[in-house]
Amino acid sequence: MTQTATYPDLNGASVFITGGGSGIGADLTEGFLRQGAKVAFIGRSDASGFVEKVAQATGKKPLFIQGDITDVAALRAAIDTAAAAHGPITRLVNNAANDKRHTTEQVDEDFWDWSVAINLKAYFFACQHAISYMKSVGYGHIVNFSSVSYMMGNAGYPIYTAANAGITGMTRSLAREFGPDRIRVNALAPGWVLTQKQLDLWADPDSLAAHLERQCLKDYLKPKDIVNPTLFLSSDASRMMTGQAMVVDGGVVVTG
């Protein structure tokens, strides 16, 4: 990874990332480590191989806590473990999500509950618990990953788009509620980032070409393109930004 900016306040910061061992999350973990941050992350799958690889690449070893973010007790325990190891959490990145394709007719209550638990409920409870640590030290920065999918009105995953719209709304409310505690809360809405999962499951040539046609910038988004915006929102460089939704999508949707 090539780092293009350095944020001194991230050096030594206690950072917690959901889903930090694969996809965009793995690049986020590496990006924070290269800033000198103390990084902990939770993930369902064994990430020990990634931990060793990124430790060799950066000279810093992240703390991996295996667990399911939909288990609120386990999520809270993971945040507590991270705080015990690295000090009170001052940066939270809610990155983990699942955009499993589905149609409205297919959805039953179990699928609804599963999708909302991953894509919205876990975000709320991670924020709730991390905020208690941030209040104890008098500041904190939260980045909640949303998506441009709901802004585009995409079909094919209505619960996922509903959850992402909810993340933006929740972000704005939390920013208002905890601004007096010097806790900033922002959303980051990526476009179609070509992680390995996307390439394996959904990024066929026709779909890729159609999406690229909609972008102003004619380059495919890669996980590394999301790292620097996240570092910016997590650092004092953005100290007067809160309650915002930053879009990084190559110019598909227009905000403002």
UniProtKB/TrEMBL annotation:
Pfam families: adh_short_C2 (PF13561)
Protein name, UniProt field: NAD(P)-dependent dehydrogenase, short-chain alcohol dehydrogenase family
Keywords assigned by UniProt, alphabetized: Oxidoreductase
SMART domains the record matches: PKS_KR
Source organism of this protein record: Jannaschia helgolandensis
Signal peptide residue numbers: none
Keyword Transferase among UniProt keywords: no
GO MF, one annotated term: oxidoreductase activity, acting on the CH-OH group of donors, NAD or NADP as acceptor
InterPro entries according to UniProt: KR_dom (IPR057326), NAD(P)-bd_dom_sf (IPR036291), SDR_fam (IPR002347)
Family that this chain belongs to: Belongs to the short-chain dehydrogenases/reductases (SDR) family.
Entry-linked CDD domains: SDR_c
PANTHER family reported in the protein's UniProt record: 3-OXOACYL-[ACYL-CARRIER-PROTEIN] REDUCTASE (PTHR42760:SF133), SHORT-CHAIN DEHYDROGENASES/REDUCTASES FAMILY MEMBER (PTHR42760)
Residue span(s) of domain Ketoreductase: 13-205
